Amino acid sequence: MINQSKLLILIAGFFAITLTQLSAQDALSIGPRAGVNISSVSNVDNSKSLSGLALGLTSTYSINQSTGLTLDILFSNQGFAVGEDEYKINYVQVPLYFDLFFGELGTAFRPKVYAGVAPHFLLKAKYNEEQVSKEQLNSFNFAVSGGLGFNLRMTNRVWLNTDLRAFLGLNDYRDKNFQTENKRAMSTVQFSLGLAYGLSKLD
């Protein structure tokens, strides 16, 4: 199995190389993104949702006037509660989406819908205020994701990206040695805002 830190370095390197290549093709925007997560877990009796922070970097490559690719790297705080107890898990979330934009290129308001995948890489976890050993948790989680939103031009080449996304976890958040018969997978609804600067223009 690939070491988690090495895998994150590979993803970061791929992200940087991809941005460099796409910026040369006159179609790239990049900037910060911040938002709020509402997350929950399956197959835990009497569990309740918890809110958390999503923060990081967003980028979009326009393939043509109506389609594009979005790649984000986000710190994502997720978890759930049972009674007075809270279980919080921090991930590096790397969603990749295929975007469909509506309206003509150049208009100030462009609605969008999108779908894709979202690998999650474990950072740390807490049960109430106590640190949870990483040995108890799955270091890699995979989710399918989709969403909708709109991009609003604020000034020349600066866009406000407004997004509502859902993430459906496909695997158990626990390590295989700690799993029970029923899979416990994380699901998250995320509302976020991004401020993207167009590094270059689509021809």
Protein described:
The protein has a single domain (4-198), classed as Porin, CATH 2.40.160.20. The chain is 10% helix and 61% strand. It is built from 1 helix and 10 strands. The protein has one helix spanning 4-23, and strands at 28-41, 47-62, 67-82, 85-93, 96-101, 109-127, 130-131, 140-155, 158-169, 186-198. Strands 1, 2, 3, 4, 5, 6, 7, 8, 9 and 10 form a 10-stranded antiparallel β-sheet that branches. Strand 1 and strand 2 (47-62) form a beta hairpin. The protein is elongated.
Give a summary of the structure in a few sentences.
This protein is mainly beta and 203 residues long.
Multimeric status of the protein: single chain
Q: Report strand %.
A: over 45%
Through-space gap between termini: 43 Å
For the record, the count of structural domains works out to 1
- SSE pattern, N- to C-terminal: HEEEEEEEEEE
The average pLDDT is 88
Q: Please, how many helices? A: 1
- CATH architecture descriptor: Beta Barrel
Q: Please count the beta strands (DSSP E, at least 2 residues each).
A: 10
Biggest sheet descriptor: 10 strands, antiparallel
The geometry reads as elongated
Q: What would the CATH topology be? A: Porin
Structural class: mainly beta
- Given as residue ranges, the uncertain stretches (5+ residues, pLDDT < 50) are 21-26
What percent of the residues sit in helical stretches (DSSP H or I)?
Answer: under 10%
CATH class: Mainly Beta
What is the CA-based Rg, rounded? 18 Å
